[in-house]
Specification:
Elements: H1 5-13, H2 18-26, H3 28-33, H4 35-46, H5 50-55, H6 59-75, H7 83-98, H8 103-123, H9 130-144, H10 150-168, E1 172-181, E2 187-198, E3 203-206, H11 211-216, H12 220-234, E4 241-246, H13 248-251, H14 254-265, E5 273-278, H15 286-297, E6 302-308, H16 315-321, E7 325-328, H17 330-333, H18 340-355, E8 359-362, H19 368-376, E9 381-382
Parallel strand pairs: 2-4, 4-5, 5-6, 6-7, 7-8, 8-9
Antiparallel strand pairs: 1-2, 1-9, 2-3
Helix pairs in contact: 2-9, 4-8, 8-9, 12-14
Length: about 400
């Protein structure tokens, strides 16, 4: 039995004893013989739900789902109800949350499971095992039931369908926001920004509201790969420098790094590429950032620290990295005309950047007074809606 306090309490709540474990082991072979019948009936049942049709929408997805359900079914009678067993259930529960699985769907699926197992016991005249089977089903249902509100379920499901649709139909679109030279107010470089296109409404949406969901449903990598390929393709014959935003998940993903290596190897002028890394990402494992920067600099690429002033990185790491560009966090820039504290912090960042021989970019320049203050402070580059909003470059 599990030593985990939370799961131990659940087991105790259902009076699940060693005798129940023994009983379930005894019927393990019996239920194993019925596994095909169980799975066939289970999928006939759940395909009555529109939700199942949306998410089990291909043979590959169906096969994978069926394999996992088959394992779960057999494990009901494994006799090994330890931490590993309950952690697996917890993982399944987290998946339910991530894909917005409605609680009524889970409850209905379990109603089929319970009926099926009872029918088998009745058919085989094994009614003495009914109580133990009921208990293990109740315990599983307790852990796997999701309790979202209807609005939350609907919104999450809508977001997941939208993100998957964008990947499937090539609706991941790079937008570009110009970065201006402070002295001339001429475009110097571009930052690439991911947008998701909704064909039904002809609208483009920033990735940020969908970022967590994309990572939860394991589709973030696909979005990143599509975005990187498109940016490199669009900027191949462009004379400007351009930046790509990367987070810790990207930097520690071998597939993404391999793709970047191949693209840089074959890019006409790789010294036009800037990689923006969020400052707060440094706290995970700075060596990942350091190794990536060293590798990309072999091609002549530059490293920018994004949102500087928002994170918790140590100055030691900043000094090690020696970024070519420091992008001052927008929360500091947007208050320059009203906050003396913001102005002091920005002045210190500019001074530090000069010591590091790095250029500074002011993000979130949203009005004329902010723009003029940035010019007075001699920030090197400006970026924000006052100057120009992100747009489709081609």
């Amino acid at each position: 039995m599990t030593n985990n306090t939370h799961y131990k309490k659940i087991v105790q709540n259902y009076d699940f004893t060693n005798e129940d474990i023994f009983n379930l082991e005894k019927v393990s072979e019996l239920f194993s013989n019925y596994s095909k019948e169980f799975l066939d009936g289970f999928y006939r049942f759940i395909f009555n739900f529109e939700y199942a049709k949306k998410f089990i929408n291909s043979d590959a997805v169906h096969d994978k789902h069926k394999s996992e359900i088959g394992k779960w079914y057999l494990n009901l009678f494994s006799g090994k109800y330890d931490d590993k067993y309950f952690e697996k259930l917890n993982t399944i529960s987290e998946v339910h949350v991530k894909i917005g699985l409605p609680h009524h769907y889970v409850n209905a699926a379990f109603s089929y499971v319970r009926r099926f197992l009872k029918d088998v016991l009745i058919r085989e005249n094994k009614l003495e095992f009914l109580s133990s089977v009921d208990k293990i089903i109740d315990i599983n249902l307790d852990i796997l039931t999701v309790t979202y509100s209807k609005n939350e379920q609907a919104k999450l499901l809508e977001d997941i369908v939208f993100i998957r649709d964008c990947v499937a139909n090539d609706n991941v679109v790079p937008f570009f926001q110009p970065i201006f030279d402070t002295k001339t107010l001429q475009i110097s470089k571009y930052e690439s920004l991911m947008r998701l296109y909704k064909k039904q409404t002809n609208q483009y949406f920033s990735i940020f509201p969908y970022l967590k969901t994309a990572k939860d449903i394991k589709i973030y990598e696909k979005l990143t790969v599509i975005m990187i390929k498109k940016v490199f393709d669009l900027m191949r014959n462009n004379a400007y420098e351009f930046s790509i935003n990367l987070d810790y998940e990207d930097l520690s993903n071998p597939k993404v790094i391999k793709l970047l290596d191949e693209l840089m190897e074959n890019f006409p002028k790789p010294n036009r590429v800037i990689f923006e890394i969020v400052e707060s990402e440094f706290i995970d494992d700075f060596s990942i950032v350091e190794n990536f920067a060293a590798w990309m600099r072999k091609y002549g690429a530059k490293i920018a620290i994004d949102d500087f002033g928002s994170g918790f990185s140590s100055m030691e790491n900043i000094l090690k990295l020696k970024p070519e560009i420091i992008k001052i966090d927008g929360t500091l820039i947007k208050n320059l005309d009203t906050s003396s504290d913001s102005k002091i912090l920005v002045k210190n960042i500019i001074s530090m950047a000069k010591e590091l021989q790095a250029s500074c970019v002011a993000e979130y320049v949203h009005n004329e007074p902010i723009c003029k203050i940035c010019q007075e402070l001699r920030i090197d580059y400006l970026q924000g809606f006052y100057l120009q909003e992100p747009f489709l470059l081609f």
